[in-house]
Amino acid sequence: MSTVFADEKVMARGRPDGDARRRVDRTRAWRLAGSAFSFIALIVVWQFVVHRGLLSRRAVAPPTAVADALWNMLGTAEFWSTLGSTVRTWVTGLLVSIAIAIPVGLVLGGSDLLYRLFRVAIDFLRTIPPIVLLPLALLVYGATQQTALLVIVFGSVWPLLLQTMYGVHQVDPVAKDVAQAYCLRRHEVVFDLVVPSAAPFIATGIRIAATMSLLLTIGTELLGGVPGIGSKIAIAQTQYATIPTMYAYVVAATALGVVLNLLMMRLERRALSWHAAHRTA
């Protein structure tokens, strides 16, 4: 009985009480209110600066004109087709990066020799700006999705690869010794010990790679003419009459980035709900 009561006390200590929940809810509410206030203040300052002529309307459209252009765009099939092209390129590039980086990272991180041999080479390659590959990709593939994928994968694979290597390399050696003592098979060690231990590192790497992939997607569309939001921004920038449209696409790209980041964070919390950093009562 004493054991049962002890277990109940431990569970009670690990479970937040009503006051703690209310404090967390109030903190979240204040953060949300602060974010909303900052956003509204930014819009007001933007409108004031343009209205007063402190910034030329030929270069900066007022928020009212941008909102009107965005509202009109939302009702067109062209906008959703453009948005779909960007999202499709982003998803494809991210999935290819994941398919390359995680298996290679598990192999390199699981061997001290390979970790030391390839660490310097990876550090050198990841310092190369991905956008420098754009001229070469345009010569080979033209303004197509393949061009964007080449740039996206080259830029996104490194943070995920390094995070996976770090995660595998940081696996508790005592846990490895226990697995060896129990004569676990190689695949059992990988899937039951290495992958769960490295999962937080891998999740962080995927989130970083997702952000990098989106930035490179829009960048290649903007500079290389690959179909998507970026190319629409470049086209709208060439004429004064379409400046509000350009900013509307910029706002759409920003909203897309925010939504995708929130989605990745939610997926990370759900996938790692067992981890101490994401555990909820």
Tell me about this structure.
The chain is mostly helical and 281 residues long. The protein folds into 2 domains: 1-55; 63-271, MetI-like (MetI-like fold). Helices cover 80% and strands 0% of the residues. The chain has 11 helices and no strands. The protein has helices spanning 2-14, 18-51, 63-74, 77-109, 112-125, 134-141, 145-169, 173-181, 186-224, 229-236, 243-271. The protein is globular, with a radius of gyration of 24 Å.
Helix-strand topology string:
HHHHHHHHHHH
CATH architecture of the largest domain: Orthogonal Bundle
Report the helical percentage: over 70%
- What is the number of strand segments? 0
Task: Compute the average pLDDT.
Answer: 82
Q: Report strand %.
A: under 5%
The CATH class of the largest domain turns out to be Mainly Alpha
Number of domains: 2
Name the structural class: mainly alpha
Going by CATH, what is the homologous superfamily of the largest domain?
Answer: MetI-like
**Cα end-to-end separation:** 25 Å
Q: List the uncertain runs.
A: 1-15
Shape: globular
Find the CATH topology of the largest domain: MetI-like fold
Number of helices: 11
Please outline the major beta sheet. none
Radius of gyration: 24 Å
Keywords: Cell membrane, Membrane, Transmembrane, Transmembrane helix, Transport
InterPro entries: MetI-like (IPR000515), MetI-like_sf (IPR035906)
Subcellular location: Cell membrane
Domain ABC transmembrane type-1: 83-268
